[in-house]
Amino acid sequence: MTKLLEMNLRHTLRFAGGVYRTTSCRLNVATLALATSPFQFSGGYCSKTCIPSRLKLTCYATLSAVVKTQESAFDGKEAALLVDELRTNFNTGRTRSYEWRISQLQNIAKMIDEKEKCITEALYQDLSKPELEAFLAELSNTKSSCMLAIKELKNWMAPETVKTSVTTFPSSAQIVSEPLGVVLVISAWNFPFLLSVEPVIGAISAGNAVVLKPSEIAPATSSLLAKLFSEYLDETAIRVVEGGVPETTALLDQKWDKIFFTGGARVGRIVMAAAAKNLTPVVLELGGKCPALVDSDVNLKVAARRIITGKWACNNGQACIGVDYVITTKDFAPKLIDALKTELKTFFGENPLKSKDVSRIVNSFHFRRLESMMKENGVADKIVHGGQTMEDKLKISPTILVDVPEGSTMMQEEIFGPLLPVITVSKIEDGFQVIRSRPKPLAAYLFTDNKELQNKFVQNVSAGGMSINETVLHVTLKDLPFGGVGESGIGAYHGKFSYETFSHKKGVLYRSFDGDSDLRYPPYTPEKKRVLKALLSSDIFGAILAFFGFSKES
């Protein structure tokens, strides 16, 4: 799953404070020991104790090498013991109480407040993520989800009373939410804090025991999460397992009550196949090629700025909801491209490779993948802006291409990087078919003031979510579900939807011993049949007549 993405030299596994930890050593051009070199931000320093001293990295995937690895001690047996322990603790009923849930949520909020600098540093080490972008995209969103859960938890947990029917009279009925049990969260590297903690917030809110498997491709954040979870959360019900393919495989072999996975479709299929062996339900938060359709009646400057924000200012294109490609008319394309160039210069300067506001590519594998896309036959000559690279820094400048061949890798696969192809059509409505000809995306964007076109887009384009005259911001609204459709994912979360995705909605009927009728019991007679047919047809008058031996005809 990730062997092609990076080289790990695993040489130690230890268990401490409820956290399984695989010690990793990265092969790098240069090695920076985080424990001895605190990273300075405006407003203060991050304590050197935030990230364990065993983790040393900088530009951690700039070299590849062949090393002889030692098998990880976290195998299927260890995974089984972990799940059994958590299930035993869950079965005590401790995690079901409001008091336990709220205390864990409050501790997450406290963790974010107290360790903001540490988290920001880890994100910088993994992705060179700018401090403000890290705060807005990861810390603020996660804190917002946590505070909403704290505020609404009692309401979410309260049974929902529903109507009953004449067939159960006298009675009452409720929908009761109950936790699923022991759940697994496998998170992604591109937003490694947000995509780890937000699903855990949902799992805790619903009263589950949970194991988090953070991405090993973001090792600083993974290591920090392991340390912070053991420090702030209840280790008898909440654990972190670090590692790569062997650890993930060992976890997937276990019986879970739900698996929540964020990542690519290829690995999503592996997760779903593993879950199917135990009939385990899954949530798959995947991705796809998210389009932005741009009409000619837009405010050009605002549209360009928002497209840039949803592409390059969103982890430099390494986001599942980021704009993957733009569709516009042939006549309008030059104006749009000029506006994008102007605003890119405003945002990132003359040389964006030196900008501190552009994240780097996560590792050398993805750098070479993106570089290969640009150099592919028939693609390189389509570049109209950017295309510069800095391999030693894993930087690729914001790049715009026009009418890239449909058969190219860039148009057949999710780009997941700073390359933006612009596809031109004769009229804007033709863009609908361009979108529909591909698998359903996780997000789709439309820029236009034409209300009729907006309505047609919403009604005729299928996507996990949408923004009109905006990009990515729809995912910040906690009253909207966030999830894919078709190949872009299964299930949804955020806000109450997170609580519900980790809950079972149990229907409960309450009756007393009064009002018992012979109508439902044998022997079955023609009279009983007439009464029951009338009752089930909501014909109260007919039921009364049938009860006394009459019919409407008589």
Question: Can you tag this structure with a few keywords?
Answer:
single chain, 554 residues, alpha/beta, six-stranded mixed beta sheet, globular, disordered N terminus
Helix content: 25-40%
Report the principal-axis shape.
Answer: globular
- Strand arrangement across the biggest beta sheet: 14-17-18-13-12-19-20
Span from first to last CA? 76 Å
- Give the helix/strand class: alpha/beta
The total count of strands amounts to 24
**Total number of helical segments?**
17
Please, what is the oligomeric state? single chain
Strand content: 15-25%
Calculate the mean pLDDT score and round it: 88
Largest sheet: 7 strands, mixed
Give unreliable regions as ranges. 1-45, 52-70
Cα-based radius of gyration, to the nearest Å: 27 Å
What would you say this structure looks like, in words?
The chain has 554 residues and is α/β, with parallel strands linked by helices. 36% of the residues lie in helices and 19% in strands. It has a 7-stranded mixed beta sheet with strand order 14-17-18-13-12-19-20, sandwiched between helices. Strands 9-8-7-10-11-22 form a 6-stranded mixed beta sheet, with helices on both faces. Strand 10 (258-262), helix 8 and strand 11 form a beta-alpha-beta unit. Helix 2 (98-114) packs antiparallel against helix 4. The relative contact order is 0.12. The model is unreliable at 1-45 and 52-70 (pLDDT under 50).
Summary, kept brief:
The protein is α/β, with parallel strands linked by helices and 554 residues long.
